[in-house]
Amino acid sequence: MNKPMFSIIVPVYNAEKTVSRTIHHLKAILFDSYEVLLINDGSTDQTYELISREITGDSRFQVYTTKNQGPGSARNFGISRAAGKYLLFFDADDYPSPSVLIDYSKLLESNNRIQLIISSFTMITRYNEKLSKKKYLVEDIIYYKKEDFQNSIYQLMCKQLMYVLWNKCYRRDLIIENNIRFKNYRSCEDRMFNLEYFKLCDVVAMNSKNEYYYEYDPSDGITTRYFDDKFDSFKEFYQLANQVTLDRNRTGMAALHLKGTVSVIFSIFGNAHLPWKKKKSQVYSILNDDTIIEAKKITEVDTTPRKLTKLIFDLPNALSFCILNFGSWVERKFPKIIFSIKKRY
């Protein structure tokens, strides 16, 4: 087939319960010029077999299998194989609006200077078989100056619109020419990819149409999982965020850094395979980290959760340790409580 306008890259790992549904939604996209690259990241279940069956005979779909190295590495592999002028990154357990590529093509054809599209999306929270929906909306705006966009990044972060990949459309040539790739982390790698890309953007289109449906289970998400380098990734993201926004929102970024650090510490306490002595060592190391010492001094305290977070980090380390350990227990037993607090952050 001719080179497509869009390439959709989907990392897939042990997604046998959802990948067929996702492929059905991807096939239902109302546009002709697109390809889908499904990167099987070393799945150990029936994911590959299901993908192969679902895409047989459809030349728009390709499946590749790689060694399991996490979604960032899988996306990098997809970037190296993509042929489209524009790239989209979707997940294997969510689904897009059928009109997503029609909407994006209209925007891009109306203004060929657009380097990034950021869209509204819907979060579907699944907890104990109960579903709730919340829309995260943007207004139809086009930023024509890099400075104007950079000035908006922090507020858009607070609205949960900037971290993720799947509500965005990127230009492949900017990614390739500037060698932007996902870092070798299993957490925050998407956020850092975005920030590196944001540095290049002069013209950014905000698209009010709801283009993606993200399903989230607060008891089972990558944000609650433990990784050895998880704090390193949050720390690097915090420093990069200040760099990209030219230190314009240091106090707000500090609040977001503390929020992220709480989730890191919760994941340490929640890891049943980690010896208690190592948990204690890791948590105390984080509490004494220079970025945390700075963040708790300068953080914004404009909401109740932010005030509470600062209070916890300002306590002597032994007390902070105990309270955060209790908070981790609450998250494991009653994840909806912690999730609702995060939403008000």
Automatic annotation (TrEMBL):
KW Glycosyltransferase (keyword) present: yes
InterPro entries named among the record's database cross-references: Glyco_trans_2-like, Nucleotide-diphossugar_trans
MF GO annotations: glycosyltransferase activity
Pfam families: Glycos_transf_2
Top-level taxon: Bacteria
CDD domains cross-referenced by the UniProt entry: Glyco_tranf_GTA_type (cd00761)
Transferase found in the keyword field: yes
Keywords associated with the record: Glycosyltransferase, Transferase
Domain Glycosyltransferase 2-like: 7-131
Protein name: Glycosyl transferase family 2
